[in-house]
Design a protein that fits this description.
The structure is a homodimer. By secondary structure, chain A is an alpha/beta fold. Chain A is built from eleven helices and 29 strands. The first copy, chain A, has three domains: 120 residues, Immunoglobulins (Immunoglobulin-like, Sandwich); 274 residues, Glycosidases (TIM Barrel, Alpha-Beta Barrel), CATH 3.20.20; 85 residues, Immunoglobulin-like (Sandwich).
Chain lengths: 530, 530
């Protein structure tokens, strides 16, 4: 929880406290609202200030409020938001060290022309900034490679408080560094509970006023995002979804756009955010693809931190080649198509829904742990990334009609499956390979399907190749001739399920014939010997 | 061997022996060549006669010889062939009972205008005729369903005699009723031996004369085809292939066409023939798709028995929708595409190369027995058929550079894999279902991927559905709600690998929730209770 406290510490009561460091207008701001004093804001943390403003009418809809943050010749437009009770806020994640100044603008005189400044200092230890796309892969803003090994808990923030805490505890020990999660509560098979908080004001009859977001709802969501950030987990935040009984999936366009702007103003300053415009966008019958094109533009225009942007589909792919999409977020297991897609789209690919380890009565929710593990390997071998989910019913509960099972995929809680441990094993192999190569991408050359499976992607051997990883999938050769690149290599047999690494005696060069296990789902790693 | 002897018995020394049963010209024939006396030819057996003719020049190229076989108002054109040593033959498989008469035609007076007749009588016990396409499935000519469960021994007829005998013995006990095999010898990895016989005359330097087929070669091939017939096995005979060092893959068009006509004249009368125009036709760089179009037409025009016709590809599919193709012969495992292909092509689909159970150093030759078994189930569930192959190296032999392993896929011999037994188990399920429904197609409605996997093919339930078979593949639900069609059903859990059928207590109707194994690769069968 260290990081949550740190974030709170960085919040400023009303206006920028570093006015002493600012130019002319800072004096004015200090005079008007001199509250918390802060020496500096570390890079990629949240700088926030609040101002009092109009509380009558509908401030959400009627009051425009923003700030321009300036560093040298650079100016960043930062939308603000109404936080209820006459309180207006600006949040900003500085992405460069130096002396930032700011000035507010508003159609309300009370909120307009306020200025201030603060020093952005070096990032805290272990903080690398938001994740960005780098070619076909990802890296933090400081260049540190980021390899997404994600999981899925769509509605965990809408569960009882104790369960949410348990989810965070589970994630602390789990191998996942990204989580797909919804802003809106979810109404779906196995997901019927009402949320404790609603995203919009509701009348006594439960009718939502989409023009009035509920600040308490978003404050809670932000705490969860900050909790994930403290664990080093990226929040792949799903802005719309079709599993709905409250009307959030069928709001009018004007309400959609206002909701988006509100979320962006509140949440963009959290460095661990990825925007997922929707889960299964094509199942949202009230919306068109053009609506989602517009949503992408709203996100682009209103996110000062330019977080990753994608959208997830069910049957009909969004065109991931469009320039405003930073990476693909797929629902399929067509790993053999990945090479072509990478070439076409020239951006990273996350296979974000490949079915879940589980045993329930739906095809998307009952694959074995072995199959889930296999999909992670196939995804990595294809130069892509894969997302986990778990839908394991208790064997007895399945025939209890009154049972309300807690499923990780929807509710969070605990992980009971056998795949996470194996996914963690693979993640470590991938991360180790990056350390070995000092690269911003995995330091091994994936050899399947690229090479071993004879697919169209040529072997990307170079004399700098640090590691080569083969995965044999259903294939069970008892020997294979490996064409090694220039240099000398050690070799290890890897059993992805047993998580065993068995070094082979010897140092190898050139065309290398090796005896293999002769059973399926095995791997082999070569490491360059210096 | 009973059937081989029977076939020999039906051969006539020179001309038709049933002349006594024939009309006017029969008297002439009897007078000219009265040799063997035969009472009758059972339907779908081989009727053959030989005539002496010119032996000088190149009779293969220069002598035209054919016969017209007549039954009532129907006349069938039957090409004849030169069998060497001044001997010319006509072979014919009568497909209808009754009194057939025939008359020869030739550009050689010695072979022209010979006439005869014979009675075609009821088929021998257990003989159902050649296999034909019936909608998306296959049936023998008499309507008995035929479900291909094939295997692959490309070059078995080119191995030492003892090995060929062993292959036939293995097939006698194996679960396969179709075999893919080449006319030409094969030159490929693990296949380097010279054949005992060559298809064409060769000079001392080993140069072939493609205009002179070698009758001994074809006589031997025919014996093998007859041997398969005696075992009830269809010979899916591959007419061209690219694995060649003798020049058979690069003959000029004229030689190709003459070779085809020769094969057709000799072999069409064997009822267990399927024509596979090529293996991997698209790897035959010296030929174009148009060449294969022409080959199809030559086969159509010269095969009086109209056997099944297809062609097998490597990378580029032949257009199986063309009217002269009777069924698809695929090299892939895209079972999920089968529903669309069935709809487009409106003919049966054989997944004839889905990789082989094995452990050698090629991706096509090293899948596990479990994966091979799974592919058979997926194929059947998709309403299609799958072909087996085995490439199991001896674990020690793999590192012996001088070893020349005997691999079933190329050489025949014995089967050592674990999949054939499971394939036999599935074949029995499929054949039993046809018996249960009295149908010309499998009597179960396949439920995966069609229904269980939510694919686009609707559940084909009717009130006559005799059996419903579900296969869960990688899915492991602990329960599932099965929507049964009208009527009452018993249910059995099926373990395809353990080959165990476990009846569930009770009789089921309507929406039926059942507890399942909760592990992958399981199946379930419903059977209508009358």
């Amino acid at each position: 929880m260290a990081q949550i406290d740190r974030r709170k510490m960085l919040k400023l009561g009303t206006a920028g406290s570093l006015a002493a460091l600012a130019s002319t207008s800072a004096q004015h701001l200090m005079a008007e609202a001199p509250e918390t004093a802060r020496a500096a804001v570390p890079q990629w943390e949240v700088f926030e200030f609040a101002l009092p403003g109009p509380a009558s009418g509908n401030p959400f809809a009627e009051v425009q409020f923003s700030a321009a943050f300036t560093l040298g010749n650079r100016s960043v437009y930062v939308p603000g938001f109404y936080d209820g009770e006459g309180r207006y806020k600006i949040r900003f994640m500085p992405d460069a060290e130096g002396m930032w100044s700011y000035a507010t603008a508003s159609n309300s005189p009370a909120l307009s022309g306020k200025t201030g400044a603060f020093a952005c200092i070096a990032p805290l230890a272990g903080v690398h900034g938001p994740v960005c796309a780098r070619g076909h892969h990802f890296a933090y803003a400081d260049g540190t490679p980021f390899f997404p090994f994600g999981t899925t808990c769509y509605a965990w923030v809408h569960q009882p408080e104790e369960l949410q805490k348990q989810t965070l505890e589970t994630l602390r020990a789990a191998p996942f560094n990204k989580i797909r999660m919804c802003v809106f509560p979810k109404s779906y098979e196995y997901n019927h509970n009402e949320p404790a908080l609603y995203p919009f004001a509701r009348d006594a009859a439960g009718k939502s006023d989409f023009s009035r977001p509920n600040p308490a709802f978003f404050e809670h969501l932000e705490q969860r995002i900050a909790g994930l950030c403290a664990l080093g987990i990226e929040a792949d935040l799903i802005l719309f979804h079709p599993y709905d009984r409250w009307g959030y999936a069928t709001m009018p366009a004007e309400a959609d756009d206002r909701y988006l702007r509100y979320v962006l103003a509140r949440i963009s300053a959290y460095r661990n955010i990825w925007w997922s415009l929707a889960n299964e966008y094509d199942l949202m019958r009230a919306k068109t693809t053009q609506d989602f094109d517009r949503f992408f533009h709203i996100v682009e225009e209103n996110d000062p931190s330019a977080h990753l942007r994608s959208v997830h589909y069910c049957n009909t792919m969004y065109d991931y080649g469009r320039p405003w999409v930073t990476h693909a977020s797929l629902q399929n297991s067509e790993f053999e198509s990945a090479a072509g897609w990478l070439q076409d789209w020239r951006k990273p690919i996350c296979f974000d829904e490949v079915m879940y380890e589980g045993n329930l009565n739906r095809r998307w929710g009952n694959i074995s742990a072995e199959e889930m593990t296999r999909k992670f390997w196939l995804g990595v071998m294809a130069g892509c990334y894969v997302t986990h989910g778990e839908t394991l019913l208790d064997a007895d509960g399945a025939f209890d009609e009154n049972a309300t099972p807690t499923l990780w995929w929807a509710h969070g809680g605990t992980l009971r499956g056998a795949s996470p441990q194996r996914i963690g094993f693979l993640r470590k192999l991938v991360e180790d390979s990056a350390v070995a190569s000092g690269s911003t991408r995995a330091g091994f050359e994936a050899q399947s399907p690229a090479y071993y499976l004879n697919a169209s992607v040529p072997l990307r051997e170079t004399k700098d190749t640090a590691q080569i990883l083969y995965y044999f999938d259903v294939h069970q050769p008892i020997f294979y001739e490996f064409p090694l690149p220039e240099g000398r290599f050690s070799a290890e047999l890897i059993d992805p399920w047993e998580m065993k690494i068995t070094p082979l005696p010897g140092i190898f060069s050139g065309k290398t014939k090796l005896k293999l296990a002769g059973r399926p789902y095995q791997a082999l790693r070569f490491r360059r010997v210096l």
